[in-house]
Amino acid sequence: MHYVYRLRSESQPEQRYTGMTGDLKARLRRHNDGAVPHTSKFRPWTLHAYFAFPTREQASRFERYLKSGSGRAFANRHLWPGQPG
């Protein structure tokens, strides 16, 4: 399985991160260990949501969609309403 996930920073709750991985537990560990430069300054992170897909291609398309303007609007309206982008 391949996962698209959303993280929320515990230290700065307004910070969010959306990514994709084949190993969700290991990827969260890397974010919290500071091994991902883009997220290291907002540690620690908690898993807010994830979506499982049978192929990497499907997961990649969904991740790209969530990171687009219309995908962010959809997610904010339907997946995690009332929370910062």
General description of the model:
The chain has 3 helices and 3 strands; from the N terminus they run ββαβαα. With 85 residues, it is an alpha+beta fold. It has one domain: GIY-YIG endonuclease, CATH 3.40.1440. The chain has a 3-stranded antiparallel β-sheet. The model has no long low-confidence stretch (mean pLDDT 94).
Q: Indicate the mean pLDDT.
A: 94
Count of DSSP strands: 3
Strand order within the widest beta sheet = 2-1-3
Number of helices: 3
Q: What is the CATH third-level topology name?
A: GIY-YIG endonuclease
Strand content: 25-35%
Distance between the termini: 26 Å
CATH class: Alpha Beta
Radius of gyration from the alpha-carbon trace, in angstroms: 12 Å
SSE order: EEHEHH
Helical residue percent?
25-40%
Low-pLDDT segments, ≥5 res: none
Instruction: Report the biggest beta sheet as strand number plus sense, adding barrel if it closes.
Output: 3 strands, antiparallel
Q: Quickly count the domains.
A: 1
CATH architecture: 3-Layer(aba) Sandwich
The assigned structural class equals alpha+beta
- Shape assignment: globular
